[in-house]
Amino acid sequence: MLATPQEENKGHYFNPWIGGVAPGITWIYNNSAPGQSDGEFTVERMAQYIQGFEERTPRASLSGLPIGGNKDTLGGVWYCPEVNSQEPSMPGWFWPFFNQACWMHFAYFGNVTSWKNPTPTPRQKLDLVDRDLSADKVLMTDLLAYFVGNGPPNGTNWAFHHGKNGSGSHAITGWADVPDGNANAPGSIQDMAGIHVLWGDGHVTWKTDSDLQVQKLLTNPAGQPNVDSSGSGYMTFY
Q: Which of 43, 93, 111, 133 could cross-link to 13 by cystine, CB 3.0-4.6 Å?
C-alpha cells in the first residue's frame, strides 16, 4: 500500500500541507486551494487507498458555510484507535480554513526535499522520507504537536494521543477550533507516554517519552527533531 501512491504518481510522494509547513494538517479536496493543494497529501487523494472518508456536505457549498458547517466525516485508520475507537466523526477543522482543511491524528513527512514552506533543514533531509521508502527514514508518526502561541512549552499546550493519564485525552478531533474538540483539550508534555513512528519500509516502532527527551522538549523544543510550523501556530515532532 505504501508503494502504490508513489508508483501511480511518477515516483513522487505527496507534499505535506502547503508545501511542508504543517505535517499534521491536510486539505479535504484536491482543489481546496488551487496552487497550494496541487501535489499535496489530501483526504480526497488518499481516499482511493484508505477507506473512512464520508462526503456529507456538497463540496461546492463549503466556502460559504459558517465555521463547522462542513459535516464530512473521517473514521477508520484516519484516526488513532486510542482516541475514539476510529469511529466516524467530524475532524478538527483547521483555522482559518475551517471547512476546507482539517487535522489528522497523524503527521505525514514525505517528499522532504521538495518542501518549500519552509525549505527542509539538513537534519530533516537526513531523518525524513523523500522519494525512496528507506527503512531508516520517518514517513509518518502519531501527531505530537506544541502550540507555540498558547504559551511556553511547560504549559498545557501540547496535543498527543497516548497519555499516561488517559489515552487520547489530548488529541485533536471533532470540529471545534484548535486544539480542542469532542471535549479534548491540550495537555502537558509531561503526561505524554510516547508516539508510534512509521518508517519508510512500513515497519513501526514505539518512541517512549524518554526517547523523545521530554525534559529537553520542556526547555528547548526547537532543538529536538521537529518541523517548525510556527507560521501556523505549532511545531510537529518526530
A: 111
